[in-house]
Design goal:
The protein is mostly helical and 66 residues long. It is built from three helices and no strands. It is elongated.
Length: 66
């Protein structure tokens, strides 16, 4: 039983190490977007209207999982 728990912990640690570069990159990009893009710009594009705001949000959100 202890061996199974150890293997799970080791595998989890390896997955964390493999994904850490991408997590740090995402945090860096999010920080740059926060600094460079004003909140008013986002509200102007995504805060008005019903259908156009949803379409824009979906269009910009499509590449995120890729």
């Amino acid at each position: 039983m202890l061996q199974i728990i150890t293997e799970i912990l080791v595998a989890s640690w390896e997955i964390l190490l493999d994904s850490s570069v991408y997590i740090l990159g995402g945090i860096l990009i999010a920080g740059l977007l926060k600094v460079l893009i004003s909140p008013e710009l986002i509200v102007n594009h995504l805060g008005r209207g019903r259908y156009s705001s949803v379409a824009k949000a979906a269009f910009f959100g499509i590449p995120l999982p890729l």
